[in-house]
From TrEMBL:
Belongs to the methyltransferase superfamily. METTL16/RlmF family. This is Ribosomal RNA large subunit methyltransferase F. Specifically methylates the adenine in position 1618 of 23S rRNA. It is found in: Cytoplasm. It comes from Hymenobacter oligotrophus. Its EC number is 2.1.1.181.
């Protein structure tokens, strides 16, 4: 049986056509952008530069290099143990959301600060606001129930001129609410996005971590270290992904006129039937499932709207039409 190579540099040819991270990483170029990365780059068995993706420090250094090289982010750091996101996959979600907006706007990609996006669970890494603003000029409100994540995300937004005035971060004070307490009645968002915690318990999350560690070749430790990290609220929630998304759907129905598209990543195919049933019961006017291929992995997001065709047209004319 062939064992996976933890130092292999992934090939991202299946990513969205506008994704800057298609193809293999140019590690020499990235190390020039962020010299710290050079310490983690070494030749593999074939003599090609490679990175040990089982090493959390290497993954963080890679992210710093990618953010500086492609998005102009000079200051980015997160506390130990917090989620270090795989940037190519995160960028794919943003680009497919841009396509979703374009399909609702006669094929034109709505750009600029007039587009407002709510990122549910922004995390300490603040990755979606960084990519969304730098690629499309959108403004973001990020929410999180973890005070440390909120503080660090605010620091990232404040420390980088490239994000000036584009990112607001709010603490979600309730452990049981998603939109409640953070969206004001008079606020409107063109999109919401979310990468929900998909495990149902700490034990389930740890078991998944062990499987991943084994795949990366680090499975002999008593308690494996996740190369991408993650706090409890980033990895699991009571009832898992299905319960979280049921709550999100229920809350979204109360804000049906405050947002054009509600969206969320859905990790498990088994979650989809229950989510579709909930959205049908809540009388969503449109539901779409968008598949995204990332290497050998296929993931997806579900988008839904409660706006009628007339309301959609009025929204487009008011918020997306080019200003004279």
């Amino acid at each position: 049986m062939n064992q996976p190579n933890p130092s292999a540099t992934p090939d991202n040819d299946a990513l969205h056509p506008r994704n800057r991270h298609r193809g293999r990483y140019d590690l020499a170029q990235l190390a020039a952008a962020w010299p710290e990365l050079a310490a983690y780059v070494a030749p593999n068995a074939h003599g090609n530069d490679s990175l040990d993706f089982a090493n959390p420090a290497a993954v963080k250094a890679l992210n710093r290099a990618l953010l500086k090289q492609y998005y102009g982010i000079e200051q980015w750091d997160i506390p130990a143990g917090y989620l270090v996101p795989p940037i190519p996959g995160r960028a794919d979600y943003v680009h497919y959301l841009a396509d979703l907006l374009a399909e609702s706007n006669q094929g034109e990609l709505p750009r600029g600060r007039g587009i407002r996006v709510l990122d549910v669970g922004v995390g300490a890494n603040c990755i979606y606001p960084i990519i969304g603003h730098r690629e499309y000029g959108w403004r973001f409100v990020g929410t999180d129930s973890d005070p440390v994540a909120v503080r660090v995300a605010k620091q990232i937004a404040a420390a980088n001129r490239a994000l000036a005035g584009a990112v607001e971060v709010r603490l979600q004070p309730s452990a049981t609410e998603i939109f409640g307490g953070v969206i004001k009645p008079s606020e409107y968002f063109d999109l919401t996005m979310c990468n929900p915690p998909f495990h149902g318990s700490a034990a389930e999350a740890e078991a998944a971590s062990r499987r991943k560690a084994h795949h990366l070749g680090t499975g002999h430790a008593a308690k494996p270290v996740l190369n991408f990290g993650g706090q409890a609220n980033e990895l699991w929630t009571p009832g898992g992904e299905a319960t979280f998304l049921w709550r999100m759907a229920e809350e979204s129905a109360h804000l049906r006129h405050n947002c054009y598209w509600f969206t969320s990543l859905v990790s498990k195919k088994d979650t989809l039937p229950g989510l579709y049933k909930s959205l049908q019961k809540l009388r969503a006017t449109e539901v779409r499932t968008v598949a995204m291929a990332q290497g050998h992995k296929v993931t997806r997001f579900v988008a839904w709207s409660f706006l009628t065709p007339d309301e959609q047209q009025a929204w487009q004319a008011k918020r997306w039409a080019p200003k004279a």
